[in-house]
Specification:
Elements (H helix, E strand, L loop, with lengths): L4 E5 L6 H12 L3 E3 H14 L7 H10 L2 E6 L2 E6 L2 E2 L7 H11 L2 H15 L4 E5 L2 H5 L5 E6 L2 H12 L5 H20 L12 E4 L5 H16 L11
Parallel strand pairs: 1-6, 1-7, 2-6, 7-8
Antiparallel strand pairs: 3-4, 4-5
Helix pairs in contact: 1-9, 2-4, 2-5, 7-8
Length: 233
């Protein structure tokens, strides 16, 4: 029976992180939010006041940064040069900086190597943009997790506590659409669905239904023989 190694890809704001964390908990396997590593790299670049239009300068900064991470009950905890940046990497300035940092090929190669080291144990669930296509193309189950941009904008606005502001939601939707365009058209490891990935459109799904669906897929693919009982009617 193969060990459960799961790749979950998809665009920004689709809810991958919270879904991945819950699936990992339900299956009793480790998980990795790879976006936290790229955010940590962006935080390092911002702290060093690097020109985000200068890829070489970004790489010089990230190359020297000591980025570490560990799984914790509330999510992945991340450190840069010994400083806990778990909360700081979710702030708006990092949101704006992460895309240009992600587009630097040398940064991607370094962080992909870290992700592959993590996956070398042979089991777990990892989420990001290029997991099933680049990082662990040998994963036994690949899922492309998607939702409409307007739905993702509302979810993100709810997380930020601004879901009552239509103008803010509209701005978020535009930013998400632009992020999708940049992620899917970059020359290095673009975001795309793996040929053998299962598409899961979560636009009209409740959170627990998303989790249950992935649990079912994993149980079937890896022969886990789980006793499945929905947590919610």
């Amino acid at each position: 029976m193969p060990l459960p190694l799961i790749a979950l890809d998809g665009p920004a704001g689709a809810g991958k992180s919270t879904t991945t964390r819950q699936v990992a908990w339900r299956l009793g396997i480790p998980y990795l939010d790879t976006g936290a590593l790229y955010r940590a790299a962006a935080w390092a670049a911002l702290k060093a006041k690097v020109d985000l239009k200068d890829p070489a300068a970004i790489w010089r900064c990230v190359e020297k940064a000591n980025i570490t991470f560990a799984q914790a009950p509330g999510g992945i905890r991340t450190w840069v040069d010994g400083t806990d940046v778990t909360n700081a990497i979710r702030l708006p300035d990092v949101n704006s900086a992460v895309t240009p940092v992600c587009e630097v090929s040398e940064v991607r190669r370094r962080l992909v190597a870290m992700q592959r080291d993590w996956a070398a144990r042979g089991f777990g669930i990892m989420e990001g943009r290029d997991i099933g296509t680049v990082v662990i193309p040998h994963a036994g189950l690949k899922i492309y997790f998607w939702a409409r941009p307007e739905v993702r904008a509302i979810r993100r606005a709810t997380e930020m506590g601004i879901d009552g502001d239509p103008a803010a939601i509209s701005k978020l939707a535009a930013e998400i659409t632009e992020r999708d365009r940049r992620d899917s058209t970059r020359s290095d490891s673009p975001m795309k669905q793996a040929d053998d990935a299962i598409i899961l459109d979560s636009s009209d799904m409740a959170f627990n239904d998303q989790v249950d669906m992935i649990i079912h897929l994993a149980a079937e693919r890896f022969g886990l023989g789980l006793y499945f009982s929905p947590l919610h009617p």
